[in-house]
Automatic annotation (TrEMBL):
Protein species of origin: Marinovum algicola
Name of the protein in its database record: TPR repeat-containing protein
Signal peptide range: 1-29
First and last residues of every TPR repeat: 100-133, 134-167
A Pfam family: TPR_16
UniProt KW keywords: Repeat, Signal, TPR repeat
SUPFAM superfamilies: TPR-like
Tree of life domain: Bacteria
Length: 186
């Protein structure tokens, strides 16, 4: 069983390398700056559509094979198979090392599996390649809050809100942390 699984992994990796190197270099996702600007100014009702559009753009690697790995990883996460998800995302970042969404998604898989250190490392990589990735920033804020680092968590949530003012998780995080910092008025 182990031999078959290892053979399949090697075959998939070889296929992905072949497909990756047969594509023209420099293929990148569409610029999202206009969408991000609209998101900063959006009413709450429109923000959801803009977030979906931005996420769709950030999910385009420029390679059908890499997009398939992203989809398979997400599908594995949807059914709770975090180990398989992490494997798909690892293959993705191995073959597309500048694709921020691969790191972001692997960080989510790691975090959900209780692997905080690797999740932090992948969020750092996601933000290196996409500093506007409000999902990765939110992930950092959640981890810092979980670790009891309220200052960093608050800064993370505030950075999310600078990009996506209607992000309810970030709004709630800021409110929660400010209440904790000040204490409750009676």
């Amino acid at each position: 069983m182990v031999m078959i699984r290892q053979h399949i992994k090697c075959s998939v990796a070889a296929f992905l390398v072949l497909v990756t190197y047969s594509l023209p270099s420099g293929v990148r996702a569409q610029d999202t700056e206009a969408l991000l600007q609209q998101l900063r100014e959006a009413e709450p009702a429109e923000a959801g559509r803009l977030v979906a559009d931005i996420s769709r753009e950030w999910s385009k690697s420029g390679s059908a094979a890499m997009d398939l790995l992203l989809k398979r990883g997400r599908d594995a996460m949807d059914v709770g198979d975090l180990a398989a998800a992490a494997e798909h995302f690892t293959a993705l970042v191995d073959h597309a090392p500048e694709f921020a969404e691969g790191y972001h998604m692997r960080a989510m898989a790691y975090y959900n599996a209780g692997r905080i250190g690797p999740a932090l490392g992948d969020l750092e990589m996601a933000l290196r390649y996409n500093p506007d990735h409000f999902g990765a920033l939110r992930g950092l804020a959640v981890i810092f809050e979980t670790l009891g680092d309220a200052d960093r968590a608050l800064r993370g949530y505030e950075m999310v809100l600078a990009l996506h003012p209607n992000d309810e998780e970030a709004q709630n995080g800021v409110e929660r942390l400010l209440i904790t910092a000040r204490g409750r008025d009676i």
